[in-house]
Write a structure and sequence with these properties.
The protein is mainly alpha-helical. It contains seven helices and five strands. The protein has helices at residues 2-24, 49-72, 81-106, 113-131, 146-150, 152-178, 184-208, and strands at 32-37, 43-48, 232-233, 241-245, 248-251. The strands form two sheets. Strands 3-4-5 form a three-stranded antiparallel β-sheet, with no helix packed on it. Strands 1-2 form a two-stranded antiparallel ribbon. Strand 4 (241-245) and strand 5 (248-251) form a beta hairpin. The chain is globular and about 65 Å long. The protein starts with a helix and ends in a 27-residue tail after the last strand.
Length: 278
């Protein structure tokens, strides 16, 4: 808990560094500052100096705190330490980049926005794509579609494909940005690849019937609600345990049904017409 608070304070402080720098440079900045650029790096949006210097870092800080709160509510089982670090430092990094670009442009420096921003985005896609397949099913981080949330198998397959596509798009973005070949239509095409293809793939899996993965059960996970005297197939890890009576797994015999006769995808344990062991 203490480490989380320290990390929150540190990352929040980093988010506010552009605010402190802007306050120190405030007299040297113009009354109206560029805050939005097109894909060619030409400014096409402006904001008042106070809103740029104070409002932008505070907005990013608020977004960072929301992300921190949402991530802190996730269970430890679903957390990926590396991905968590990336997510916790994304807003601070964006704040530093945005502050450098807006303040540098306000002071009259050439910031090469059409190169810097896509390279930053490409690096982010590379990192996130590498860890997308490792995210366990949850409702906070990941590709949260109705079909991925209903099925762990669908979630796993969709995130594997998404991870590959995000890494591929990151590799495409960085060299094209450095070569000054970046454009709006290219960004739209890459965004469609990263979003539409995984969505269609996940829906196709759902239509195909890939909905639920039923895992093998151990004896301690058996449902004890089966009436006494009813013999049921038991999905046990131990190959010698194949049947049970009176709600308990009992050792199988040579003439008893084996676990291999019942695939792991078979529904939960239920009564089967096999003789009880003597």
């Amino acid at each position: 808990m203490k480490n989380n608070k320290r990390e929150m304070l540190l990352t929040s402080l980093v988010c506010l560094l552009p605010l402190f720098a802007g306050a120190a440079l405030y007299p040297r900045l113009p009354e109206t500052m560029a805050t939005h650029w097109d894909f060619a790096g030409n400014a096409n949006g402006w904001s008042p100096r106070a809103a740029t210097v104070f409002g932008l870092p505070l907005f990013i800080l608020a977004l960072h705190l929301v992300c921190f709160y949402a991530e802190s509510r996730e269970t430890k089982k679903n957390r990926n330490p590396v991905l968590r670090t990336v997510l916790m430092w994304f807003c601070p990094a964006a704040s530093l980049l945005g502050g450098a670009v807006t303040l540098g442009t306000g002071l009259g420096y050439e910031m090469h926005i059409s190169t810097v921003v896509p390279v930053f985005g490409g690096l982010l896609f590379l990192i996130l794509g590498n860890y997308l397949p490792k995210i366990r099913q949850n409702r906070t981080v990941g590709i949260k579609l109705p079909w991925t949330l209903q099925s762990e198998e669908n979630w796993t397959r969709t995130h594997r494909l998404s991870g590959f596509l995000w890494v591929l798009c990151g590799f495409v973005m960085i060299p094209l940005s450095l070569l000054r070949l970046w454009s709006g239509w290219l960004f739209g095409a890459l965004l469609a690849v990263m979003v539409l293809i995984p969505t269609v793939y996940s829906y196709a899996l759902h239509r195909k019937g890939i909905r639920h993965r039923i895992k093998a059960r151990t004896p301690c996970e058996m449902d004890a609600s089966i009436p006494q005297g009813v013999v049921s197939c038991c999905f046990c890890v131990d190959p010698d345990v194949t049947q049970r009576t009176a709600g308990r797994c009992t050792p199988g015999r040579a003439n008893s049904p084996s676990v291999s006769a019942f695939p792991a995808r078979r529904p939960a344990c239920g009564p089967f017409p096999y003789p009880a062991p003597a």
